[in-house]
Amino acid sequence: MQKTLFDKIWDSHLIKDIDQNENADYPSGPSLIYIDRHLIHEVTSPQAFASLKQSGRKVRRPNLTIATTDHNVSTESRSLPIVDEVSKTQLETLSRNCKEFGITIYDIASPDQGIVHVIGPELGFTLPGTTIVCGDSHTSTHGAFGALAFGIGTSEVEHVLATQCLWLYKPKSFLINIEGNLRKRHAITSKDIILNIIRKIGTDGGNGMVLEYRGVAISGLSMEQRMTICNMSIEGGARAGLIAPDETTFNYLRGRRYAPTDSELDRMIEFWKSNLKSDENVKFDRVQTINVGELAPQISWGTNPSMVVDITDSVPSPEQFAKSDENKRKLAIRALEYMDLEPGTPMTDVHVDRVFIGSCTNSRLEDLMEASLVIKGRKVSTNVRAMVVPGSQKVKLQAEEIGLDQIFKDAGFEWRESGCSMCLGMNPDILLPGERCASTSNRNFEGRQGSGGRTHLVSPIMAAACAIEGHFVDVRDWL
Amino acid sequence: MTNVDTDQIIPKQFLKLIQKTGYGGFLFYDWRFDRAGNPKKDFVLNEPKYRERQVLLTRDNFGCGSSREHAVWALYDYGIRVVIASSFADIFYNNCFKKGLLPIHLSQDEIDYLFDLEKNDDAVIEISLANQTISISEKIIDFDIDLTRKKILLEGIDEIGYTLSFSDQILNYEKAFKVADYNKFLGKN
Ligand code: SF4
Predict the structure, then answer these.
(1) CATH code for B6-156?
(2) How far apart are CA A181 and CA A199, in angstroms?
């Protein structure tokens, strides 16, 4: 039988199917799936540990879970004390739980601390063909390595800790073929590709499905760029996103702490090469082809990640949606009101107050390098407050070694410590009501970056150019 | 409303607690309250007649975005026991069953019918999970639910305990399967 990459990973982790045989209307019950890798952070784990303790259970395989603190941590200097008592309790609770159950933790004192989806790959914890879960929806990031990776709720975090397995209903498969070659390297990024995909399939287009991304445009991307694409699969509603591993993937793994070494790695690579790709003639439940040959930089105008236009477009009018869907029209009216935008305004006329370069979508070394291309020798607009928040302490260090921090600082950017920061504003990095932000993060929901704040999702290089000009610009003109 | 995301259901500033309870007061916080913390008159849950309701009626893609189970805890704490929508985001749907919140998936037409019914003040609906029906005076709407999930809700099964009853199979898998090779790179247990 022909199988997709997703089928293959699923089947190789299947422990048991629940048979609902008597009732033909419900042929597929949940399956018990083995989980190879588990990542935890301070926000979605405390209740899982509490309940584990209450029922007197142990962690089945403590070495298959690693922990970090990212959502709540301050991005001010690490030597300052934590001011927020409630955040502090959450951070300390995670440390205590990890100690008690023998789980490795990279807390704020650690040189390996960072956003959970940045450090997993960085440490070589993320490997092709594995199943990876985390109490966080952007776990889909790890799918860039050909791993089946998805977000779970807190009860499932507890379930994984106790059993190293999960009961899952098998999602459907959705192939996204990405044709065409990106025109202007640097100006058009993988962020633009994924924003364009979500614009086309909608925020629920991938519901109940695992996406597989394929095509020349994908093979040409680095691991970091692939991670940006898989990261936002959840914004299209998908359970997970997958890219079959290739030489780029294997090269990335060499020398990483938890990755296999030398001959072991070579042996694994042989295994991965022959096993981790969809069979040639396999049928996906859904297929969509997207051509990125003429892609312009993408920018979100509304309050969900499918409300996206080209940078050369204007703010859309709700009437554009009237014919197709009354609900869409209502949503557009509400979004425009929240975003305080006039239909017909060119996107390049929209001014911003803040610029945020960071988050698990776009805070890796390459993202920062790309952003730095347009700021060298320039200054951040006097009306803008701009910040760079590296995804991990390692990214920060590497960036500093090649002098990126200085380029950003000279231009007037704040250069901060690693964490989720203004991606969700659980720490003091938030937008004030009414402030407008060019952000490299993944969600533009109402209030996501701070109550009343307005978010426009863009690529790192678009955000950087916007910081200089004080309004959005077509970065293709700069390169 | 369509695409109600979990950031709206429970905004992040309320995710700092380390318990599973106490979130009800923060449900839809930014929609229910203005900046000074006063209830907004025009938000539906603030209308007196809706205060005690146990059923939430909504449209496409409810619960999208963040995986936070806090969203389910907040709905439950507030007093909601059933959410009816034309579609749900996957993680949210899954999370509902962990707390005993029933998510019901209906067609657009059925949802429209229920919204129309809402205009009639004394309409009462009765939901039976055992029969998988929503009864409105004469009319009955059937809904689908997976049998395992139904059982979990009706019987309140301890899922972890159930999984642990397969411990031998899990152990055999760990011993036999090749991928488990990966794990030796993670050090000893
Ligand atoms: S950076 Fe943002 S999206 Fe990513 S894990 Fe942190 S809060 Fe979630």
Answers:
(1) 3.20.19.10
(2) 19
